[in-house]
Amino acid sequence: MVTYLLCLVLFSVGLYCVVRKRNIIKIIIGIGIMEYAINLFFILIGYRSNGRAPIFADDQAVVNMVDPLPQAMALTAIVISLAVTMMLVALAIRIYEKYGTFDITKINRLKG
User: Fold this and answer.
1) Residue 111 lies in a domain
2) Are 30 and 21 in contact (CB under 8 A)?
3) Nearest partner of 22 among 110, 111, 106, 90, judged by Cα
């Protein structure tokens, strides 16, 4: 139960970075922290103490098998978060090229 609470604290730290920071790079880092917290939560859902890999064998009984679905969801989320992070960094670079700053309070107008 403590690990779930620590996962929530990690997500809260990322949410704080997204909501309170004004630097685009810090916001992107906050989004990354939130994504890692969600991936950790997916892994914790499928964890079993002394669990075995989800591979069936004829000579062994299926006892205390780890759930493979949260692991597959975490792997998919890692790939998607990598693509989202690359897109956000590319957008931040374009904003810096246009306005010369990463501070969102100094960018007073965003037009094409």
Assistant:
1) no
2) yes
3) 106
Whole-number Å distance between alpha carbons of 37 and 92: 23
How far apart are the two ends of the chain, measured CA to CA in Å?
Answer: 48
Give this prediction's pTM: 0.83
CB 85 within 8 A of CB 32: yes
- Dump pLDDT digits (tens) for 10-20: 999 999 999 99
* Model pLDDT, residue 13: 97
Residue 85 located in a structural domain: yes
Give one word for 63, left, alpha or beta, with left for phi > 0 and alpha for psi -120 to 50.
beta
- Whether residue 74 lies inside any domain: the answer is yes
Alpha-carbon gap, residue 13 to 30, rounded angstroms: 7
